[in-house]
Amino acid sequence: MHDAFIALGANLGEPLPTLRRAVEALGTLGEIAGVSRLYRTAPVGGPGGQPDYLNAAVHLRTPLDARALLAALHSIEAAAGRTRTERWEARTLDLDLILHGSAVSDDETLALPHPRAWDRAFVLAPLHDLNPDLRHPVTGESVREALTRLGPAADVQPGLTGWLDA
Length: 166
Prior knowledge:
- Its EC number is 2.7.6.3.
- It is an enzyme of class 2 (transferase).
- With 166 residues, this protein is α+β, with helices and mostly antiparallel strands.
- The protein has helices at 15-26, 66-79, 121-130, 143-150; strands at residues 2-10, 31-35, 38-41, 53-62, 94-100, 105-106, 111-112, 156-160.
- The protein has a domain at 2-112: 2-Layer Sandwich (Alpha-Beta Plaits), CATH 3.30.70.
- The mean pLDDT is 89.
């Protein structure tokens, strides 16, 4: 089994039910070991005028290798109506594979760890809920240390607990 950490985000349609369904779908890929609180965050990059995102993270124990898991994440996104046309555009669902064990990959189809995760408070805050001592496999920096380095993030609103309860 591999310990995978997946960032979830949505800002189109009905983000909360979409994220709940995404967590349910992730559960079919292995064992959900943890789900973070839900955060409301301002969009980063992309076209202006986008609605805020809802963001979370999931710790998944999965038998899938990184490429198979990434393909499964893309299938879950597509089932939620995600289309990939413009980078950093608004989306019905975004599932980013942040870590897959200690795997390191830097090719066109799979970048591990996620290349921008340790610089984004909207990814780190949910990861901190799951494991503040989780370390970047290349730099060794922990999630806690990265959040301290970034400083207070005004665009990341405090997390909501119990959001999976219907």
